[in-house]
Amino acid sequence: MQLIIIFSCVFQAILIFCWVYVRKYQSRRESEVISTITAIFALAVALISSALLPVDIFLVSYMKNQNGTFKDWADANVSRQIEDTVLYGYYTLYSIILFCVFLWIPFVYFYYEEKEEDDGNTCSQVKTAFKYTLGFVTICAVLLLIGAFVPLDIPNKKNSTEWEKVKLLFEEFGSSHGLTALSFSISSLTVIGMLAAITYTAYGMSALPLNLIKGTTSAAYERLENTEDIEEVEQHLLRIKSKCRDGRPLSSRDRRTVQQLEERLRTLRRRERHLESIEKSWWTKFCEAIRPLKIVWGVFFIIVALLFTVSLFLSNLDKALHSAGFDSGFIILGTNLTNPLNMLLPVLQTVFPLDYILITTIVMYFIFTSMAGIRNMGIWFFWIRLYKIRRGKTRPQALLFLCMILLLIVLHTSYMIYSLAPQYVMYGSQKYPVQSNRTIDGQPRNVTFVSKDCDADAPEDQCIVTRTYLFLHKFWFFSAAYYFGNWAFIAVFLIGLIVSCCKGKKSVIEGEVDEDDSDMSDDELSVYYR
Fold it and tell me: Which residues cross the membrane (predicted)?
């Protein structure tokens, strides 16, 4: 009963956060009920899905005592039921993600695009949106068909006990073609999520803490500079217009210059209004008051980011040196090269529930750094910038893209956590009893049992592998792609860290005022600075 109450409170908190986040960034002039509901629902699904990993680890660990024995209620049937329940939870949420990515979000996106281009009847807009959405549905159907018939038998190396153990785990995982098809589709999306994580999460992990540390420029100082720029542009305009006082027309070059200067002047005056609102707002004064706290959080986040990067590097290096190779997807059971996170989690296991708090914090950290990366970079298609994410001025299509990207990143988060702490993700805090014989004068005198952390050498009936681990490694070629993606993630993080260190302070209205904004957009943003 208590668990139900806790889950209910968490669910309500997630919905409230999603509503506040979407309403904070969406444009007031272009907001639509259907796009708002879709964005809130998709964001909530992303956050709820990210909570599956800590729950999975907790359940397999909760079935055993500290001495390595199973609890009285955790017999073979009960443990199997718990494992199946977690597995069905994964497939249920992942099916919802498939529905969102391939049907709901594309339909709402194209429906809104058609509404902007044609203000005709709703029936025509729905038909056109369905027509474009069929392309996404076709892709999903193709992935499901490939997944249903893709061969899982991989030519393994001879005398490779590592791979034989993995094959046994796969056989235990089941061979249903329907579940395999769904798993293949989700794994395909996870690869796309990996690319999104490399692009946005890696950059967000460096940009978010450094922005907190460096802060923003002073609104008063920016107003002074902006006033000087306005005066300079006005003087330049007067010099050019003075050429036609005697009735002579301006040259085409001067006319283009005047047009550019007038656009520049409108932008500077909008900046002046925004800077004045920010300088007088209570929010600015509050942010200045908590500036030391922001610096502390920034230092903490950069330490955490460096800890993650070092752990990821050591884990990938371990796979490169000790795994069965490319044909097995660089799968490795156990840990040969330890990393800081793998060292920290066993220490925290001694005090319940510190290890679960840490793993949940890590998952949330990835989600929020991904949000920060998307917010700072905007949404890109290769070298083309599609949308910007701006407070109070984000278009509905951009919000839908943001939520879709977060859904894909969440799918990849589980593998990122596994890469950081492989032993913990496989077994959690499980232990198993090992017989220890005491000898006196070479003769066995006393037989005792000591508990040992579960690893690849543990008996199969003594340690339960999480469903997360088996799900991640169902297809060896996806595991190989994730392995190389981790190296790319490390490289992008380091590049982003260097770029963020070299950049100066952000403007206090960074990204809030652009030349293509209308004067009406000022009213949308003013509500945040009163």
Answer: 5-22, 34-55, 88-112, 132-152, 179-203, 295-314, 356-386, 398-418, 475-499
